[in-house]
Design goal:
The protein is an alpha/beta fold and 128 residues long. The chain has a single domain, classed as TIM Barrel.
Amino acid sequence: MCIPATFHGTITNDGPSRIRKVLKQNPKLNVVVAHLGIPDTVSYLELMDECPNLYLDTTMALAPSSPLRKEFDIELLLPHSDRILFGSDFPNLPYDYAQEYQPITVLPETVRHEILFKNAERLLAQHL
């Protein structure tokens, strides 16, 4: 496996189709899309169905005061909760750090544990 790569884009720039192309050409590459891929979150979640090496992180995507936040049904994360990573951009946040965690408290305990710990542990363990 390749070391994970992070894609950081928050402007609609056809990111999902670009990431699809990269992952199809590099099937051993793990890609982490920051900020749940805002504004293309739903498209990235759909892409996860065909790309098992695609991950999304939650950085600034769910916090109530985040300037990136878009209305989003957090339960859409459940089918791919094994590839959602907790992210925070701490300490570079324009709001209280606790807001990064608060939105995921509504998810089942096992899902929270995956997002907060297990998914990153599993992803990074592939490269040790």
